[in-house]
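Sample intake sheet
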Amino acid sequence: MTEQEKIFGAPGTGKTYNLIERLQAHLNKNCPFDQTLTLSFTRVAAREIRARIASQNQFTEKQLLQNVRTIDSYLMNRIREDKEICYTRDFIKAFYNVEKESTILDHKRISFYAAMNILRMGRITVGDGIENILKYYDGKKRPQISRTFLIQLVESYDNYKKNNLKMDWEDVKYKGLNSKIIFPNNIVLMIDEAQDCNRLEWLVINKLITVSKHVYIAGDDDQAIYRFKGGEVETFLQLPITTTTVLDESPRLNEKVYNLAQDIIHYIPPENRQEKSYKPTNINVHKMPHFGVTKSFRNKETLERNYLNMEITDPKVRIHWLFLSRVNSNLDMRYSQEIFSWSQILAKNFFTWEQIEDSNGHSTGLERATIPNIPSEQIIGIETWLKLQKGDKISGLDVKDFYRVLPASFIRDRKKTALLKPDSIILKTGHYNYDDLKTKFYFDASINAPWSEILNLKPRNKDHYTNYIKYLETVVKNGNHKKSKNILMSTIHGAKGLEAANVVLNTDWTKKSYMSYCRGGVWKDDEIRIFYVAVTRAKHNIFFYQPEFSYGEYKGMYHNNFLTKFPKVNGRIR
């Protein structure tokens, strides 16, 4: 019989920690790691779990990637179909036969995305096929599109995927549920952040449960923020289990952040949530220089001047600064009354950072990876050149990575393309020094030249830097080029499952999100939960960024200060 334990706890009570603790107990009893599977909701959260497991064990990166992943990643690995993922941003251009989405009239774009949302939600919440999509459509009170247009789009979408050998994430799940796809037996199965799984994901989880001996599922209804993509918190609450563990202490939250969070979540009517009693236990044992700061500010330079360069003395927190916004378009916005964006602030203080990827389409809610502000190939190129200058040898793979960021002018006889081919004379297993590169691989640059003169170094976004080369020279010298994971810029949804020493929350709720709040009922509750999730990412300090809006920005409710909806919270903020 499968042992099924549900780990139920509020933010920071250690749901993920308890999952990993249970996994470690099995590993300590000689359970093979390759017979365990840990599934998380986002790539970022999966990365954090892998780091925690790696700190206690000697697993390879390949093993960690294989056994700690998202549901979609796991299923892609199992179905092994040679098809690309179909993204809405590509299909819309094919549907309207245009090269750029920006050329499509607004009313057509709105109708298209409304139809795609119905298509996706029908497949998630009802079932696959046009009949089930139409059942979902018929159940909507005020659909924005006609039945005829929806049928036309569904047929066109299916043909587009078929003709271009593509599949979407719903296809991936349905293929994974096919009886021909056999999931291997697991001794341990762990599911993190389960409160936001949708019907399709629960079907996959239930299939995994049938081949697993010990199952641990963690979640919290107050952090259910994915209703818009079909999240079913009720399934999590009603899950049949053999054991329930309720966590009643939060090592993450300090008293001040806890009080803010409690004020926020109790704006939801008691009949719409499950009350839970827990206490904050973060008492600053690591002597953070700033602790329990709950501050509001309107000017980015205020944070930069007083807090941004604070020393982070807590060794257990991996993310030092987490910049959050409700939607991606506001994440790094420079409002009309301001001089700098957040990226410009970070760059001029010689930090490196990562930012959540743009969404793959319209309100898909798909998990997204993060992108470092300095392209990884540039870091590799710089470090490789410094090794060569020391006289060290580098591998054949490193030589190819190095040549990719070299201008063609530094490789004699126009050989760059040929040298980068898989079957080139540069052997993967070989090891080469500077003289080897010069005599064997057509390299033509002085060993004394600085890396800034020989590498092709262009910023992802030139507007972030006054002098990109000077910026690179400084971050390489101070070591910050290796610390981009310490600062993350993310949407609130993208930060699900994470914690940070300091959280900076943009309180600007744009029109669509604000109107969802004004709609009332479960939609209002969801926006409150999203705000609650943002605040409870903070381990030590929470900063509320209330940007100044110009009349033009504010007009038509395009920007709204959501903090004003919580008078009790305002009363606690300095």
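Comment: Residues 106-125 form the longest helix (20 residues). The radius of gyration is 25 Å.
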